Amino acid sequence: MSSSRSTATPRGRPTVVAEPWAMAVDSVLDALDVARDEGLDQAQVRQRRERYGRNRLREAEPTPAWRILLEQFKSLVVLLLAVAAVVSFAFGDQAESLAIVAVILISAGIGFVTELRAVRSMEALRELGSVSAKVRRQGQVKEVSAESLVPGDVVVVSGGDVVTADLRLLEASKLQADESALTGESVPVSKTTDTLAPETPLAERANMLSKGTAVTRGAGEGVVVATGMDTELGRISSLVEEAEEEVTPLEERLSHLSRRLIVVTLAVGALVTISGILAGKEAVLMVETGIALAVASVPEGLPIVATVALARGMWRMAQRNALINRLSAVEALGSTTVILTDKTGTLTENRMTVTELCLDYGEIEVGGSGLQTDGGFTRDGKPVSATDDELLRQALTIGLLCNNASLQHDDGEVEAVGEPMEVALLVAGAKADLRRERLLDQWPEAREVAFDTKVNMMATFHRQDAQYLVAVKGAPEAVLEASSSYMTKDGERDMTAEARREWQDRNQAMADEGLRVLALAKRRSSDKDDDPYHELTFLGLAGLVDPPRDDVRAAIRACKEAGVDVTMVTGDHAATARSIAVGVGLVEDEAPQVIEGSQLSGEDHLEDERLLEARIFARVTPKQKLDLIALHQQQGHIVAMTGDGVNDAPALKKADIGVAMGERGTEVARDAADIVLRDDAFATIVAAIEQGRVIFDNIRRFVLYLLSCNVSEVIVVSVASLLDVPLPLQPLQILFLNLVTDVFPALALGVGEGDAVVMKRPPRPPSEPILGRKHWLAVGGYGALITLSVLTAFGLALRWLAVGNERSVTISFLTLAFAQLWHVFNMRDSQSNIVSNDVTQNRAVWAALALCVVLLLAAVYLPPLAGVLKVVDPGLRGWGVILGMSAMPLVVGQLGMAWSKRRASRA
Fold it and tell me: How many Å separate Cα 292 from the centre of its chain?
C-alpha cells in the first residue's frame, strides 16, 4: 500500500504536494508556486520556513542534567560509603556518619560537574559540522545550509552529494542514487523525470530523490517537495526514539580494568579489616577503615576521565578543523602508521588557476591567480586579445559552456560556487570578458552528459540554430582518443597519428611542469540525444596550477619523525604527482619512481615489498585504493586514508581511519569517514594524530597516577594493621584524600595538552594495553615509595618527635597527601625535560595543586573540619618531617627518569 503525501505528517500538518511522483514536472512547480529558472525569493523562503520549520530530523534529546546527577549515586563507591555511614550511625558516631554523607554529596558533585561538562562538550561538537546544498534562488545558484531548504527550493545535485530533502526531479543526466539506507536496494538506482503511477511504491519512484540517500553518478535538478520530519526518512526516523551511545574500545578496556580492580580492592579491604581485628584493634574502627580503604582504592574515576579526555581532545581537534564522526577513531589515531593521502586540496591548496592554454600555434600564458579576473593573455611576453584570436576565444567558450560552476560578481567581490577546476575555467573566461550566463543566452543548454569516470569526460549540448553545439572537456588522453580532427588558425585538420602523438607530448610537457592538464573539444550534432564522445574537434589544452600548501612540508617532516609513513595516492597524471611530491618534501629524490594504476592491474604484478615502500601512486582507481589499504593492513599497519569523492567512500570505510575533506568533499565521503577535515589540510591530519596520541597518554597517565596513589593508601594501612602500632590513617582521612589528592590532580592530568616528544616516538601498537608490564611495575614501585615515606614519617613522629598518637597520625596523613601531590610530577614522559614538560606546562595541574594545598591547610587549621578529620597542628618540626619525607618519592622518581633518559641516549 503506497503512502500519500496528502495524509497528515507526524506533526499533524499536511504536506505541500500529494504524490508528486504522479504529477508532471510543470504541475509540481505550479503547485509549489516556483519558477524553475528563478527559484524562490527571500520573502518566499522566509514565509515557508516559518510555516514548515527547519529542514532537520528530530534528534535524540540531550542527556538531561538530572539523569547525569542520578548516575553519580548508582556507583559501588556510593554504596560502600552509605554502608560506612550506617555503621558509624549504628555505633553512635553521628558526627562521622554526617561527615560520610557529606563525602557522598561532594563526590557526587565533583562527578556530576565533570561529566556534565564532558557530555555537553561532545554534544556541542555535533553542531560544528554542517551539511550544505546547492540551490537556485532569485535566478542564481548558491550554496546554503541544508537546514535552510524549504518546499519549493530548486536544488542542483551531482555525483557525491547526499540528498538533503525529498526532491521531485526536474532534470536527470545519467543520474543514479544509492537508496540502500531507505529501501534496502543495494544497487544504485537510475533516475528519470517521467511521471509515474500514483500507486508506485517507494523503492520504484525513479523520478524522486529522498532525503538521506546519495547521488552516486550523474547530475540533475529537483524541486523540494518535503523537508525535515515530513520526508520519507523523517517518517521512518519518527519510529526511532533515541540512538545508542557509542562506547569506544578504550572506554570498554577502562571499565574492564575498573571491574577487576574492584574485586581486588574489596578483597584487600576485607583482609585488612580481619587482620586488624585479629591483631587486637577496635572492631568498629577496622570495619570503617576497611570500607574506607575499599572506597579509596576503587578507581571510580576511570570511566569519567575517559569521557573528559575524549571530550577535551575532540574539542582541540575541532579547533584545529578536524571533526570526529566516530569516537573509536580517536583511539586508532594514536596508532596510525601509514597515511594514504590524496593530492589535490590536501597536499595542495585546491585553488586552481588556469595559467597556460596550449593551442595549435603555441602556448598562451594567463595572468592573475585565484579568483582575480583582471589578468591578461600573453604569448612570448606580448599581449594577446581574445577578441582578435578566434581559436583562443573558442577554447575559452567551450570551457565556460561545459561547466556546472557559477561565478557571481557583487560590488567588486567575486563569489564562486562549484568544483575548483570549473571555477578556474570561469575565471579564465572572465579575463576575456566572457560570461557563462551571456553565452547561455546565446546558446541555451539543451542537455548535459555528466562527468563519467569510465570515459573521463563531460559534455553539454547547446542549441545553435537548427543544430547543437557539443562542448566537451576531460582528461587529455580520453579527449584525444575521441577526436578525429583538431582546430588551427586556418581551420580544421585531420587528427593523424603523428598529430595525436604531438599533442600527447605537449600534454606530457605541461604535466612535467606540475600543471593539472584538461583537454577542450567540440563537435556539432543534429540530435541532442546523440553520443557526444566521437568525431570531436580538438581545440587545445588548459594547464592549471594548484600550488602546494605552505604547511605541508613541515607536516610531512613531523610524520617522518613520528614514524608515520606518508604515501600519495592520486588519480592525477604521474608527472604532476611527481612534481608535487618533490615540492612538498614527500620524497627526497628529484626523480622519484611513480607507480601508475596500469602497473597495479597489468600482467606484470609488482612485489608487495615494492608497493609497501613506494611513496607515489598515480592514475589509481578506487578499486586499487582498496587493494593498497588491504595490503598495508595485512602487514599489521594502522591505515589512515583521505578521500573526497563518492568513489572514495569504500576506501574510507575500509581504512582504519577514514578522513574526508570538508570543503571540497562530497557528502557521501563525509558520511563514510571517521574524521572530516574542515580545511582539507594535510597538516590537520597530523595534528589529529598528535591529539590521538595525547589523549591516550593522558588517560594512561591518569590511571598510573590514580592507581599508584591508591596502592600507597592500601599498603600503608595494611602494613600498620599487621603491626602493633596505631593506624597511621583514620577512615575519614582516607576518604578526604580520595576526594582531594586523588581527584583534582588526576583530572588535571587527563586534560593535558601533551609534550613535544609525543611526535618524536614511533606509533603505539594497537593491541598495547593501557597499562603494560612496565606500568604495573611503576604502580607498585611508586606505591611502595610513597608508603615508605609515609611510614618513615609516622615512625619519626612516634619515636623521634614523640608527639603522641593524634599528632603522629596527622603527620602521616599530611605526608601521604603531599607525597601524592608532588607525585604528579613523576607522571611526565621519562624522555622529556625535567623543567619544561607536559606536566609542568599544564596549567590545570598547577591549579589543582593550589586548590589541594588550600584544602589540606583548611583541614589542619579550620577547627570544624579539623575536628571531623581528627587532625591537629603538626608544629614546626612536624611540618619539616612532612615536607621532607613527602618529597622523597618525587626525588627518587626524577632520579630514576634521569637514569632512564641517559641510558636511552647511549643506546
Answer: 42
For position 617, what pLDDT does the model report?
93
Average pLDDT, the chain: 83
C-alpha grid cell, residue 37 = 529558472
* Out of 220-229, 589-598, 795-804, least confident range: 589-598
Provide the strand spans (E) within 620-715.
Answer: 639-643, 657-661, 675-677
Would you tell me which CATH number, out of the four given (2.60.40.10, 3.40.1110.10, 1.10.630.10, 3.30.70.270), belongs to the domain 355-545?
3.40.1110.10
Q: Which grid coordinates are listed for 646?
A: 563518492
pLDDT tens digit sequence for 270-280? 777 787 787 77
Q: Where are the beta strands (DSSP E) in 453-591?
A: 457-464, 467-474, 483-488, 491-494, 516-525, 536-545, 565-569
Condensed to tens digits (0 to 9), the pLDDT of residues 325-338 reads: 776 677 788 889 99
**Range with lowest mean pLDDT among 615-629, 725-739, 758-772:** 725-739
Q: How far apart are CA 782 and CA 212, in angstroms?
A: 54
Chain centroid to CA 686: 12
Q: Comparing 32 with 319, which gets the higher pLDDT?
A: 32
In CATH terms, the fold of domain 322-348+548-680 is Rossmann fold (3.40.50)
d(CA 660, CA 225): 30
Q: What is the rounded distance in angstroms from the CA atom of residue 202 to the CA atom of residue 208? A: 9
Query: 1-245 adopts what CATH topology?
Result: 2.70.150
- Tell me the DSSP string of 423-477: HHHHHHHHTTT--HHHHHHHS-EEEEEEEETTTTEEEEEEEETTEEEEEEEE-HH
Catalytic residues: 342
Mean pLDDT in residue range 281-289: 73
Average pLDDT rounded to a whole number, residues 500-520:
92
CA distance 873 to 213: 71
Q: How far apart are CA 315 and CA 868, in angstroms?
A: 41
Query: Which three three-digit cell numbers place residue 876?
Result: 614546626
Q: How confident is the model at residue 74 (pLDDT cuts 50, 70, 90)?
A: low
What residues does CATH 3.40.1110.10 cover in the chain? 355-545
Contacts of 489 (CB under 8 A, 6+ apart): 360, 361, 390, 391
Nearest to 463 by CA among 373, 526, 415, 517: 526
Backbone phi and psi for residue 744, each to the nearest 5 degrees, phi listed first: -65, -50
Specify the pairing of strand 166-178 against strand 189-190: antiparallel
Which pTM was predicted? 0.69
Positions of CATH 3.40.50.1000 in the chain:
322-348+548-680
Q: What is the Cα–Cα distance from 661 to 346, expressed in whole angstroms?
A: 8
Residue 244 has pLDDT above 50, yes or no: no
Residue whose C-alpha cell reads 523537508 in the numeric block? 227
Which CATH number describes the domain made up of 253-317+691-906? 1.20.1110.10
| Closest to 651 measured CA to CA, from 669, 637, 678, 666 | 669
